[in-house]
Amino acid sequence: xxxxxxxxxxxxxxxxxxxxxxxxxxxxxxxxxxxxxxxxxxxxxxxxxxxxxxxxxxxxxxxxxxxxxxxxxxxxxxxxxxxxxxxxxxxxxxxxxxxxxxxxxxxxxxxxxxxxxxxxx
Length: 121
Known about the structure:
Elements: H1 2-19, E1 53-60, E2 68-76, E3 79-87, E4 105-109, E5 115-120
């Protein structure tokens, strides 16, 4: 699986660097569920990039209440952001930021659903 994923990523990077844009690409793999799991850890290593690309580090329950995502966004030359967003769990339960580094921007979002969003340059 690692070899196949590396080949796909290499092909995507070639398209992005030659055209400056590419449709969303998703790599999935199945793992056995573990009801004892209490956290998620992952790393992203960006070898080549272009403005407008979002690198998703984790995505859970996409489009569903309490779903969310985090990753790295390359907005424009010289600007990258770490992003963390989570959708509202119900019309009356809204996530909120209880603590953040002073450099962190946190807001509510809408349009693709509603929820809380944080990012840091």
